[in-house]
Amino acid sequence: MKLSHRITNLTGGGSDGWDVFNKARAMVRAGVAVTELTQGEHDIRTHPAILDAMDAAARAGKTGYSSVPGEPDLRDTVAARIQDRTGVPTGRDNVLITPGGQAALFAAHNATCDPGDVGLFIDPYYATYPGTIRGVAAIAKPIQAHAEDGFQPRAAEIDAAADGATSLLINTPNNPTGVVYSRDTLEGIAGVCRKRDLWLISDEVYDTQVWEGAHLSPRALPDMIERTLVVGSLSKSHAMTGSRCGWVVGPEEAIAHLINLATHTTYGVPGFVQAAGNFALNAGPWLEDEVAAPFRRRRALAQEVLQAQNVLRLVPAQGAMYLMLDIRATGMSGEAFAYALLDAHHIAVMPGESFGKAAAGHIRVAMTVDDAGFTAALKTLCDFAGQIANTRAAE
């Protein structure tokens, strides 16, 4: 029997970019000790107070069908949070609760792309972006940002690629680069969206992890509220990756149709998870700060380690839980370097090529192991890169 082109072409007929990660996990299953600096998974678990709220809600009976759009109190909380952070009027009817940020991305592209439409996204990108766009039978079209620009996208290049496009997906703070888009960058993007009549899908799941500068939601820019869909999640802000609780915020008409989509797909998020999410969001900034603190601390540790060498270059690490390192001085691709590092030292990082062409010659390092282990692994990585560069120079 023939399967649909849509499902068989999700990865574009090639790798999904996670080959090094999969090899590292196979080594772990075989009993090899591997330092995994690959996945954006916190090394701390969900706070016990959140788990207590989840348990209490489940035991109180929130184990049946929940409200498909999301429980009213959680939708109100998300709306108030967005309004407080952006100054943009936001109410319950602007919010759909989804099973995590990934489901929100899929829903947003369902709302903005018909089959055959072009969905734009910025390269480097989170690995699921092109497959998410292909999953709605749209054409996934990357627009390369440039290392020499600190991976800030150029509005002119977005404009030049926009023929046939109906949507543009951006992510700030950015995974994989750690870059926070500047106001100038976002105003340029907004200008293209207005000129080209594009929907802007803004993935803001790392908005609580900003180390330099400030996060600006493009929904707050002039004339953008009616053409922007914001994707958010509790996964990164509250170490709730496995709970699968996120949201889409957008115009009431779009959200109404997305509620209809949810009725025919996910049919809501478990009530006890939503109760825990509502508790987490109402706990106050101390909890978000506690979750973010290890990454802020490890970023500072990384800067100290990297200042002691001259082979690897750090892309501005302004936010999120990752470092993007330029390893081109070794003469190796990101993929070749990642495999060699894994084989030689059992340290797993993600090749830049996993995130698109623009990140070739880079690696992404997740700051997701304890401080001592992270520092030791990064020093080993730097020494390894130095040895390779020295050998190359001697040839």
Automatic annotation (TrEMBL):
GO terms for molecular function: transaminase activity. It holds the Pfam family Aminotran_1_2. Transmembrane segments: none annotated. CDD domains: AAT_like (cd00609). Its cofactor is pyridoxal 5'-phosphate. It catalyses: L-aspartate + 2-oxoglutarate = oxaloacetate + L-glutamate. The keyword Transcription regulation does not apply. Keywords: Aminotransferase, Pyridoxal phosphate, Transferase. Its EC number is 2.6.1.1. Residues 35-380 form the Aminotransferase class I/classII large domain. The keyword Transferase applies. It is an enzyme of class 2 (transferase). Belongs to the class-I pyridoxal-phosphate-dependent aminotransferase family. This is aspartate transaminase. It comes from Ruegeria spongiae. The lineage of its organism: Bacteria, Pseudomonadati, Pseudomonadota, Alphaproteobacteria, Rhodobacterales.
